[in-house]
Amino acid sequence: MEAIYLRLQLIKPAKRRILKHIESTLIAAGITKIAGVDEAGRGPCAGPLVVAAVILKDPFAQDLTRVRDSKELSAGLREELFEVIIEQSLSHSIIEITVEEIDGFGLHKSNLEGMRRAINSLSQVPEYVLTDGYVIEGLATPNLAVWKGDQVAVSISAASILAKVYRDREMARLDLEYPGYGFAKHKGYITRDHTRALGELGICNIHRKSFSNIAALINK
User: Fold this and answer.
1) Does pLDDT of 88 surpass 80?
2) Do the beta carbons of residue 136 and residue 129 sit within 8 Å?
3) pTM over 0.85
4) Which of 26, 60, 174, 181 makes the best surface tag, with the fewest CB within 10 Å?
5) What is the dihedral of CA 184, 186, 191, 196, to 10 degrees?
6) What architecture is domain 2-176?
7) 99-131: per-residue pLDDT in tens?
């Protein structure tokens, strides 16, 4: 455990061939409760940030062979894998960070806080935590920040799918609450249609007022 803990560092894609599967190294060392953590929604100017954490029963189970970075999968396959991941998990949690928190504390700080909340909300205490690109300061559990982790660690990929599907569903719900913006389609990202809607309708309650394009509309 100590040797692995001392290797806490950002692992870059160039080392993928050496790592192959990060979980394999941890499992070989007797560490089996591995939590993967990832988020969805850093880039959009509207809607919540969603963070998911998951401890898989077996990262290499046959049912999980199609698990990849959520961005590499179709919406239909993500929906299918969402249920598979939950079935194959020892524990999972999904946390929403509100627009108010993002505006009040900043995106990066809110993201780290969301990761801490997601991990602390797990029903099982992980022995090790793998995150996608960000070290979680102040976390008692040893954690490894993996650069492009959702592409090299199954547990992080699984968390990315949980976060993405949950957020997409939430944006579809918010599309009904705030019609005309097209949230179900663009999920709050800046697109031509979203920009046009902002010009016609102005901002709404779920727009992130700390983001430059939204702040510019407020300060007109």
Assistant:
1) yes
2) yes
3) yes
4) 60
5) 0
6) 2-Layer Sandwich (3.30)
7) 999 999 999 999 999 999 999 999 999 999 999
